[in-house]
Design brief:
- The protein is mostly helical.
- The chain is built from 13 helices and 2 strands; from the N terminus they run H-H-H-H-H-H-H-H-H-H-E-E-H-H-H.
- It has one domain.
- Helix 5 crosses helix 7 and helix 9 packs parallel to helix 13.
- It starts with a helix and ends with a helix.
Length: 320
């Protein structure tokens, strides 16, 4: 009765005629089970399977690459792969210190070094390159103004790379092919370290001497000469060159290539060899009848002398 009374009220016609909305269509559809098109399901399964297989395949390749790089003893394959990776990642630094052809020569050197002495030998050569390049760049503008700077803003070419590493390459080949047997393996490694200690000391002493040397004189006559004169030395350059040799020999010691006496031998041999190189530069280099004796040839003589001296000194110590 109450409801009929309300319905007779003229003010509530819409409220009284309101009907509950029907959701039968929505409810019926929600109650239906969700089904996927079989073809679509098969396509998704194949795609997921392919992606999973590709992921596993990529992981397998990476794992094999890591195992190859860590090969012990090193192989030519591991040496080649390691150098491809390192040279790719380090290309900005390489471009700053080497010409394009110089990078090619350095790649061959790096591959040979890794094959002979593994990552420790490669790290030694990399340390030599970084310190040598940094020393070459010191006061480059001043050196260029004085006409004593290295060509191409200090970017070394293949001749310089080969001239700086010829003795080290010989030691690497001797080690790879086991010349002299197991007893000589450590000896070739000592000679290898000594060759780069010699060359680094020579490079640093020359470049720092040209940048900061107050008095530069010939070792043959002690005559004062301009900076950059072949065969000339300075106290500043000689001292820093000695420190560079000590540093690189210490790296060789830390990497297990040489022991403490071997490190001392490398330093002593490098200083004697550099003195001999100064004598050759002052008296013979590019003089009358010795035009063939250019800087690259003198470098080969210098580092070869450092390696030979190190081997002789080690043999003398072993015998005594």
């Amino acid at each position: 009765m109450a409801f009929s009374t309300l319905s007779s009220s003229p003010g509530l016609p819409l409220l009284l005629h309101y009907q509950k909305p029907k959701f039968s269509y929505l409810t019926s559809n929600l109650q239906k089970p969700f089904t996927l098109n079989p073809r679509h399901h098969l396509k998704m399964s194949k795609t997921s399977s392919i992606k999973a297989q590709a992921s596993v395949s990529d992981l397998g390749i990476i794992e094999r690459a890591i195992q190859l790089v860590q090969s012990s003893p090193p192989t030519w394959q591991s040496a080649l792969l390691s150098n491809v990776i390192i040279f790719t990642l380090g290309s900005p630094l390489l471009v700053s210190g080497l010409s394009v052809s110089g990078i090619g020569a350095a790649f061959l050197l790096g591959t040979l070094t890794w094959r002979a002495f593994g990552s420790s030998g490669f790290l030694l050569v990399a340390t030599y390159f970084v310190i040598g390049t940094a020393a070459t760049k010191v006061k480059m503008a001043q050196k260029e103004a004085q006409g004593v700077a290295e060509k191409r803003k200090g970017r070394r070419g293949p001749g310089s790379v080969i001239g700086s590493s010829a003795a080290g390459c010989v030691c690497a080949f001797l080690s790879i092919y086991g010349v002299g047997g197991e007893a000589f393996t450590r000896l070739w490694e000592l000679a290898f370290v000594a060759s780069f200690c010699t060359k680094l000391s020579d490079t640093v002493s020359s470049e720092i001497g040209k940048a900061y040397g107050k008095t530069t004189y010939l070792v043959t006559t002690f005559k004062v000469v301009p900076r950059g004169t072949e065969g000339a030395v300075s106290a500043e350059g000689t001292f820093v060159g000695l420190l560079a040799s000590v540093l690189l020999s210490f790296v060789g010691y830390l990497m297990g290539q040489i022991n403490a006496p071997g490190a001392a031998i490398c330093v002593i041999a490098s200083q004697i060899a550099n003195f001999g190189e100064s004598l050759i530069g002052a008296s013979l280099q590019e003089k009358e009848g010795f035009q063939w004796l250019n800087n690259d040839v003198v470098n080969v003589i210098n580092i070869s002398l450092g390696s030979i001296l190190a081997v002789l000194m080690q043999q003398i110590i072993l015998q005594t």
